[in-house]
């Protein structure tokens, strides 16, 4: 009787041990699965962090550039609104310059965004600046060297002696830079309004004043504390032209175009210019003169004037573009109301790229004045590249 009981007990013991082993295996499998799951999650998290790190590094230069530009603009805005200039001094943005007329003057550089807005307006204004040569200089003058004569040349053979060629004559034109200023005025109440865009307001006012003053000086300036204008240089009949003066053709009528062949004066003007300049020629006149010119027809009844076919394209006269500049004189007896030439070669504008601002809260209280200055000069740089049309008989 004892033997079967013992066998039963041993079988039960074996069965209990088998059950415990299965439970352990199941528990271990679950634990391993949990660990694997957590490791996968951790790996995904690390991968995402790596991607963000790489992305932040790829964007860092732009962020650094923004961080470098922001202090100037922020400090400049604070100076305009309150006169607080500690930020500008800390950034070493103060410009001090000595002039010949004053013991010393100073100002603060206009921030790049405002300066570019002003320059953009100047470039787009109806001014000689659109077609002239514009150079940036750091000096007080800009020298233009012109080869006034053709360099000598000759044919050579194998046995004949080489003949010495003529030496060219070099002419030097020095374009002095003059100070152009604007003095816009605004109330302190507007400056205290944080919603008011002071930089945009200042750019608009300064650009408008600079554009008007420049455009007038480039045409009629006398060279005294301002650029030499196109029409301020000596003029002479084109048949007797010599370096140092601008040649002109005539319309054949006092104060207007020839009644019989009104287009002849314009045609003579075009072909009175050398072929090397004529390829880049542009007409220059004001609106009143343009209104008369666009009515002129040729012998077959076709208008000499044609409007641009697309937006932004200039009108053309005899196939050449027309720049309407209001500072050109109206048609009158013996006036020089139309110019034609390669102005990129014939007229040079030199300027310093920087603009400065001085804030004056005292002279016009309770308003604030802003004294904006830049240096610019201009002069005829090639007298052979420009011709004028005289509204007269000779």
Short description:
With about 400 residues, this protein is of the alpha+beta class. The protein has helices at about 1-80, 85-90, 110-125, 190, 200-220, 265-270, 275-280, 285-295, 345; strands at about 95, 105-110, 135, 140-145, 170-175, 180, 185, 235, 245-250, 280-285, 305, 315, 320-325, 335-340, 345-350, 355-360, 365-380, 385-390.
Protein described:
This protein has helices spanning 2-82, 86-90, 112-124, 188-192, 198-220, 264-271, 275-278, 287-293, 343-346, and strands at 94-97, 105-109, 133-136, 141-147, 170-176, 178-182, 185-187, 235-237, 246-250, 282-285, 305-306, 316-317, 320-324, 336-341, 347-351, 356-360, 367-380, 386-390. It is α+β, with helices and mostly antiparallel strands. It folds into two domains: 1-92; 114-148 and 168-394, Alpha-Beta Complex (phage-related protein like fold). Strands 1, 2, 3, 6, 7, 15, 16 and 17 form an eight-stranded mixed beta sheet that branches. Helix 3 (112-124) runs parallel beside helix 5 (198-220). The N and C termini lie far apart (155 Å).
Keywords:
8-stranded mixed beta sheet, 18 strands, 394 residues, phage-related protein like fold, 38% helix, 9 helices, 2 domains, alpha+beta
């Amino acid at each position: 009787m004892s033997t079967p009981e013992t066998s039963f007990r041993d079988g039960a013991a074996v069965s209990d041990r088998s059950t415990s082993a299965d439970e352990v295996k199941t528990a271990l499998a679950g634990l391993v699965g949990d660990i694997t799951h957590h490791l996968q999650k951790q790996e995904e998290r690390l991968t995402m962090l790596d991607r963000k790190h790489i992305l932040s590094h790829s964007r860092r230069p732009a962020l650094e550039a923004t961080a470098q530009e922001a202090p100037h603009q922020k400090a400049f805005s604070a100076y305009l609104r309150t006169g607080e200039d500690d930020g500008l001094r800390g950034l070493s943005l103060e410009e001090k310059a000595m002039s010949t007329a004053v013991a010393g003057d100073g100002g603060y550089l206009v921030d790049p965004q405002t300066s570019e807005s002003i320059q953009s307006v100047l470039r787009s204004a109806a001014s000689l600046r659109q077609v002239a040569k514009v150079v940036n200089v750091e000096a007080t003058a800009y020298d233009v060297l012109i080869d006034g004569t053709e360099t000598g040349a000759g044919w050579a053979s194998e046995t004949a002696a080489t003949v010495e060629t003529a030496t060219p004559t070099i002419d030097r034109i020095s374009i002095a830079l003059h100070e152009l200023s604007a003095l816009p005025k605004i109330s302190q109440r507007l400056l205290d309004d944080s919603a008011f865009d002071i930089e945009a307001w200042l750019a608009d006012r300064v650009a408008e004043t600079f554009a008007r003053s420049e455009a007038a000086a480039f045409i009629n300036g006398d060279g005294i504390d301002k650029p030499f204008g196109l029409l301020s240089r000596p003029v002479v009949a084109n048949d007797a032209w010599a370096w140092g003066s601008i040649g002109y053709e005539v319309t054949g009528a006092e104060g207007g175009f020839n009644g019989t062949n009104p287009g002849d004066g314009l045609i003579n003007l075009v072909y009175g210019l050398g072929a090397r300049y004529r390829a880049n020629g542009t007409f220059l006149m004001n609106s009143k003169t343009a209104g008369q010119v666009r009515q002129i027809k040729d012998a077959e009844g076709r208008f000499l004037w044609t409007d641009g076919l697309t937006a932004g394209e200039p009108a053309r006269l005899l196939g050449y573009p027309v720049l309407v500049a209001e500072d050109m004189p109206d048609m009158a007896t013996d006036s020089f109301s139309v110019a034609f030439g390669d102005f990129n070669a014939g007229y040079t504008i030199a300027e310093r790229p920087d603009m400065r601002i001085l804030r004056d809260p005292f002279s016009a209280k309770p308003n604030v004045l802003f004294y904006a200055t830049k240096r610019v000069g201009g002069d005829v740089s090639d007298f052979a590249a420009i011709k004028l049309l005289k509204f007269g008989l000779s």
